[in-house]
Design goal:
The protein has about 160 residues and is of the alpha+beta class. The chain is built from 4 helices and 7 strands.
Length: about 160
Amino acid sequence: MGVPGEPPSKPVLRRAGPDDAEGVADVWLRSRKASVPAIPPAVHPDEDVRGWLTNVVLPDCEVWVVEAGEPVAMMALAEGWIDQLYVDPNWTGRGIGSELVGTAQARHPDGLELWTFQANVAARRFYERHGFVAVEMTEGDNEEGAPDVRYRWPNR
């Protein structure tokens, strides 16, 4: 976390590796819990989420992490999709999410898609500011059973 009295480390964006599993999971869990009620609570216990991130997401996706002494944000890209994007609640509003989306757009200039919950107004505005357009809405075709919206960038 740093030395008391010293300024926090400048955030650094980099590819995540297997050694980042714990930090990636911590960010995902903190962010997800802090986002309730804008999004529904996770339906799986923390240890199952940790196992999924370690054994599925990190090996199968292109995972990026932003760290400032410790991970403060994570993004998983999978075949033209932003599959996961979470910023630690203490680090929101500092441009970190925008940096992650910019990285995703640069790596996938032909297009990206993502899902977010319809009720997550802040996330929807965020993605729309970055050029994403809503192309589909469901009544809850996800494991949480909550209405969601699929976004596409660029809009074609």
